[in-house]
Amino acid sequence: ADRYPGLAALLSRAGSPEGPVPRASITLDPVDAWTVVTAEALEGLDPAHGALVIAPDQRDVARLSRLLQERGIDHEVLAGTEGPEKRYRTFRRILRGATRIVLGNRSAAFAPVQDLALVICWDEADDLLEEPRAPYPHVRAVLQCRSREERCALLFLSSSDSVPLHALSEAGYLARLEPVPAPVTQVRPHIVAMDQYLRDREGPSGRSRIPQEAMRVIRTGITRGPVLVQVPRSGYVPAIACTFCGTRAQCPECSAQLSISHRGGHLHCRVCGRREDGYRCPECDRTQVRAMVIGSTRTAEELHRAFPSSPLKVSGGAHGALEDDDVPDDAIVVATPGSEPAPPGGFAAALLLDADAMLGRAAFDADIEAIRRWRGAISLVRTADEGGEVLVVGTATLPAIRDLVAHRSRVFLDRVLADRQDLDLPPFSRVAEIVGDKTACRSFLDSVELPDGTAVFGPVDLEGPDAGGRARAVVRLEPHRSRELADALRAGVASRSARKAPGSLRVRLDPPDVF
Q1: Where in the chain is the domain with CATH 3.30.70?
Q2: Alpha carbon distance 399, 397 (integer Å)
Q3: Which CATH number among 3.40.50.300, 3.20.20.70, 3.30.479.10, 2.40.50.140 corresponds to the domain 5-176?
Q4: In Å, what is the CA distance from 482 to each residue of 74, 429, 509?
């Protein structure tokens, strides 16, 4: 916490009944573990005040709980993994004020902490913090409301800048707390992208999925400690495409993706179980197919053949998450984003494979999400002074990869915000999504009294195996009139419920996957 001088000022103002409420965000350097920064912040808080810490994953909560126990900080864990009886007793203790510090996941944002003075949220951009049930609140919005109503300090910690937090900082709602300047080699590993020079120097193998430079990183890394290999998808070969026209191979029965589950396996559908032995491309009628994405199981199989004497672990997907203490010193860990273990001494090296596939995800925020997942893996690697290195295998000229190599640069995020402002995308607009039966969706739009200037897109009939005769519409309005939009939609839903209108309908404000 000493590396972030503004944090001490925030803690000194936390719980003060007068003056402005301190709210800030910190983008941590890889050398700074969020658990350590959080523990030091809780130690610096007045013992008479309460604190609430929210993390997206139960493993994150467990890591922080272990550290607080080592430091002798009394706390309670309010998590959904506990049984109903234990969870109820924990809730009662928190309600009585027996415990001042509470840790938990998404649902713990509503914990009744007594004398709440500080709220800390780790990695607010993680989709686990989005409530999937009505009224679909995001933890970020819940904590903002609590900060206003209870006048408690609000602190967001992350390993990568997010668009919502950046927008709140630009609007003056959050203060950005910068670290004390330090040499780059002391705060992060040595990060290199597989650029054209490295590929040309290596020859034909430089254009392969796992080039010789990647093998060198693994070979030298396992002599100093465990090595992390991050791949975008789990499974063996989860996506297949035609070799000639590139059309994605889909099941003729249910239109789901065809995949291969093991070496020498056949094309099969993971939804309906159909085995497709005589597949022909519906576009060009050819039978040859290729792998679009290589999964973690196939990657582990290839690396085991290259390094047969090194222990190999797979984390994520059907293999489950690998525990932090189960990583041998010379192991190769193949993990999907979010399932990476955090060994006590950190990884000696990391390999980020299939970077282009991660960026090619069908979402308007694919680049921001890819950087977040990459930086999460980089934060587990030792610093350059300790020999840590990271190799990104992808197109080095892409802006997202260039931003990953740069240190604390805001050029890419500023560019993303400028593009979103030109396109009138969030956070420069307030968006709502209406999904439901075709008749219900259209009648709702006809009856609801939307504010003047609201842009309505649709309704459009949904396609695919889960469409079920439903339609989808999107409405958009300026952010400063968001309350008008929310009130109009709420009144429309209430009127429809009072009339007992037929058909199902779902209305969501600021849905994460609207575009």
Answers
A1: 430-509
A2: 6
A3: 3.40.50.300
A4: 41, 9, 9
Identity of the residue numbered 399: P
Q: According to the CATH classification, is domain 184-235+295-417 in 3.40.50.920? A: no
Bond into 459 cis (ω within 30)? yes
Please tell me the distance from the alpha carbon of residue 486 to that of residue 501, in angstroms, as a whole number: 20
Of the candidates 340, 359, 363, 362, the residue with the CA atom closest to the CA atom of residue 403: 359
Tokens of 149: 């109503």
| pLDDT values of the chain reduced to their tens digit, one per residue, 515 residues | 678 989 999 999 998 888 899 999 999 999 999 999 999 999 989 888 999 999 999 999 999 999 999 999 999 999 877 778 888 899 999 999 888 999 999 989 999 999 999 999 999 999 899 988 888 889 999 999 999 999 999 999 999 989 899 889 988 999 999 999 999 999 999 999 988 888 888 888 877 888 999 999 999 999 999 999 999 887 766 677 777 777 777 777 776 777 776 666 677 786 777 777 777 787 787 777 777 667 788 888 889 899 999 999 999 877 788 898 989 888 999 999 989 999 999 999 999 998 888 887 777 788 899 999 999 999 999 999 999 999 999 888 899 999 999 988 888 998 988 888 888 888 888 899 999 898 899 999 999 999 998 999 988 888 766 667 888 899 999 988 889 999 999 999 999 999 898 888 989 888 877 76
3, 32 contact by CB (below 8 A): yes
Q: What are phi and psi of 460, to 5 degrees?
A: -120, 135
Contact 317, 296 (CB under 8 A): yes
CATH topology of domain 430-509: Alpha-Beta Plaits (3.30.70)
CATH code 3.40.50.300 region(s) in the chain? 5-176, 184-235+295-417
Query: How distant, in Å, are the alpha carbons of 58, 99, 502 from that of 74?
Result: 19, 7, 52
3-state secondary structure of 476: strand
Instruction: Assess contact for 440 and 505: CB atoms under 8 A.
Output: yes
| Among 310, 305, 353, 306, CA closest to 331 | 310
Place of tokens 């800030």: 24
Asked whether the beta carbons of 472 and 433 are under 8 A apart, the reply is yes
Query: Which uninterrupted H or E stretch holds 108?
Result: none
CA distance 315 to 321: 5
3-state secondary structure of 182: coil
Tokens 């009628």 map to which residue? 285
